[in-house]
Amino acid sequence: MKDTVNNILLSGVGGQGILTASNLICEVLLHEGFDVKKNEIHGMSQRGGSVTSHIRYGEKVFSPVIPHGEADYLVGFELLEGYRYIDTLREKGQFIYNNYSIVPGSMLLGRESIYPDNLEEKISASGYKYYSLPAEEMARELGNTRVVNTILVGFLARFLNINKDVWLEAIERIVKKKYANLNLKAFETGYSYDPE
């Protein structure tokens, strides 16, 4: 896997912990000896604006931006923001998404069109392999919706062929001590989730 460049795109809205998730993934990949490049794009507002993070890793990576149509994994932290980027996936790419909707303020104020419906049907018809997670609900059951990001990373980790302990150790290193146990539980929740 080191001799090719692998691409992960995270997308969602501000306040969902995308940058923390991105840092966690990069920490693990660097620990495993990969060359890692990351690029983040923030929306207009800190909370509620569109946020994406491109992560590229391999033996040698020259650009932090994933070329269009070459993402191996797309992780949507919010349903519409995930769907917006579905065409960035390569043919055999996989889409992991939180089946939760956050209606942007611009739509509530009438500056943008109405939140589209039937998104999950469109995802199903896209031809891509996809996994729908009730991550918001899972986080609520753990007592804190701020760990949706760690749940999604936990599920993604199953596909990356890196020992689970490496992920758990990385969480303990980069998450504030008072939130470490909650995030460890959230990671395990995502890692063990069966979407079937």
What about the largest sheet? 6 strands, mixed
Q: What is the CATH homology-level superfamily?
A: Pyruvate-ferredoxin oxidoreductase, PFOR, domain III
Distance between the termini: 27 Å
CATH architecture: 3-Layer(aba) Sandwich
Fill in the CATH topology.
Pyruvate-ferredoxin Oxidoreductase, domain 3
Helix content: 25-40%
Order of helices and strands: EHEEEHEHHEHHHH
Q: What characteristic shape results from the CA principal axes?
A: globular
The number of helical runs is 8
The top-level CATH class is: Alpha Beta
* Average predicted local confidence, pLDDT: 90
User: What is the number of beta strands?
Assistant: 6
Strand content: 15-25%
- The low-confidence runs, each spanning 5 or more residues with pLDDT under 50, are none
Strand order of the largest sheet: 2-3-1-4-5-6
* Overall number of domains: 1
Structural class: alpha/beta
Radius of gyration: 16 Å
